[in-house]
Every structure is written in C-alpha cells, then in structure tokens.
Specification:
This protein is mostly helical. It is built from 21 helices and no strands. It has helices at 2-9, 12-15, 18-36, 41-54, 72-81, 85-96, 100-103, 109-114, 117-128, 133-140, 147-157, 162-174, 176-187, 190-193, 205-222, 227-242, 246-270, 274-277, 280-309, 329-341, 348-373. It is globular.
Length: 374
Amino acid sequence: MEFLIEFLQSGALYNFTWGNLAMLVVGSIFIYLAISRDYEPLLLVPIGFGMLVGNIPFATGMGIGIYEPNSVLSILYAGVTQGWYPPLIFLGIGAMTDFSCMLSQPRLILLGAAAQIGIFLTIIGAVLLGFTYKESASIGIIGGADGPTAIFLSSKLAPHLLGAIAVSAYSYMALVPVIQPPIIYLLTTKKDRLIKMAPSKPVSKRIRVLFPIFAFMICGFIAPGSINLVGFLCFGNLLKESGVTERLAVTARTAFIDIVTIILGFTVGASTDASRFVTPSSLKIFALGAASFAVATAGGVLFAKAMNVFSKNKINPIIGCAGVSAVPDSARVAQMIGAKEDPSNFLIMHAMAPNVAGVIGSAVAAGVLLAAFG
C-alpha cells in the first residue's frame, strides 16, 4: 500500500495543476499552427512539443526535469542558459544568407537600423512597468524579432526570465504573417504600395568576400558585446562566399543549424514549466514583446516613407517591415502584400536588404545593451 501511495504521489495526476493544463493547451496550439497553418514549423513544432514534455508534472527529486541537476534535459538546456546555442545558430544563418541584396542598395541598411527603435522604446515601457534595467533590456530585444539574440542577451542579463522571453520572441517570429500586414496597411496608402523599385545591381565576388571581414571588425569595435553573434554570423557568411569552403558552408547551413535548432527549440519549450512560467511577469513580457514587435515594424515602414521625401528613387515603404530580423519571413510578407496590389511588383529581393541588415542591427543592439547593463 505504501508503495502504491508513493507511486501515485510521484505521478502526473497527483501533481497536476491548472497551469500545466494551460501550457499543454498552448503547446498543442503551437503544433497546430505549425502543421495546419505552416507558421514557422521548424520552430513551433520543437517548442510546442517541448511544452508538452515540460508540463507533465512529477515529484521533485526524480532527476528527470529540466530544472533538476544532471538530468538529460538540464544538460541540454545549459546551451540556452549559458548562451552557447545562439552563436551557433548565427553561424548557420551566415552560411545561408546572401548579403548582396544589401550591398547593392546600401541606403536600405537604414531601414534595418530604423526598425530597432522597437527595442529601445520597449525598454522604456518595461522600466515603467517595474522591471529592472537588465530585465528591461532583455525584454526589449524581443522587438528585433530575433530569437537567438533574445536568448543570448537574456541569458546574460536576466536568466530568470529566459523562458518567457525566448518563447515570446519565437512566437512573434512565427506570427510575422499575422502581425505585420495590418500595420503595413494602416501606415501606407495604395499609392505607396504600388511603388516599383529598379532591379538591384550585381555585386562582385570581391565585395561579397570582403564584406563579412570588414562588417565584423566595424561592429566589433562599435559594440564588443556583439562579437559572439556578429562574429559567427560573418564567419558563416565568409564560408559561403569564399568559394573554397563550400563543404563547411553546406554543413553549417543544413545539418549543423538543424541540430542546434532542434535542441534549442525543444529545451526552450520544456523550460515552460507552469510553476515557473505562468506568472504575472510572463504576461507582461508577452504584452511588451507584442508592442515591441509592432513598433519595430512601424518604425521601418515610417522611416521608408520619410526617406522618400528626400529621394528621387522612391522606396516602396512595404519593405520597411523587413527591418526586423525575422529572416526571411518578413521579406516574404513584403512580397506577398506588394504582389497582392500589383502581381508584377517583385519586392522580395529589395526587402531582403533591410531584413539581413536587421539581423546585424539587432545583434549590435544586444551588444550595446550588454555593455551598458552587463
């Protein structure tokens, strides 16, 4: 009888709470959105299933939970809490990213910079809501729509908020096709959306090879705190563009990044144990993250309209939405909306310029915040 009682007390039903039920529902919704709506399945399936794993309760001391020392999940989760996985993700992103779209139209880099306003305005809002400066900086980076950067910075400044920040950042990355279109339509006219842009000029191989080297050195000197992220990003891009390390580039942008993404997504999802995750602070973080992402999108669109006042070669302000770092989803949103207004209008390559600039911009912003509050 004692054995039976101990068995029941260590089981899921005895330890189950309404918070666990809520998180199981959220995890199931993530999986549904990934499979049925094709919303970032490479992210939402691992995170969603990880939520299911992390919210099957058990008695403490069994050595199987993500927060129990030396368990399998806790060892894998160390890559998140210690900030190991984000630079490795950036290596793969660099190896699959073509910066020539940005290099052929340098002025579009400004759109990627303008979108970072969402980060800094959200920091102010978080401070006003009672978060510390370190916590506010970690929450604000969600506006960059860059999950690895958000994880990297929060692991350094606010590790106790890591789960909520990571899930929030990846959730809004996945919901780019839902969040951005209403903001674009609100801030642009039909005339704006019909603007056609001249095709991009080709970029020589020499410039493509030199770019990651000089970009890293410039960013490193401006914001040394960004060298882990920008360094791996530029290194991956150099592997791609050099032409002599194609094997390494292929590995970095396929098997390597896939393995890291699986482990990162699954463990981030598993970290959402209801007892630690379902709190008033988490709800505030989700609200601030949504506001940050919306402001970042609006910042890019409005800055593109402002540039048109002083420019003869007009920019379609739709591509300003791609200033956030959700590569390539926000660029696809720009293409989708532009093509809906005019099927002959191809914006995706133009949108990729602020999109990849936003990746670098959010990493540099994280480096600045790490230096300021670390």
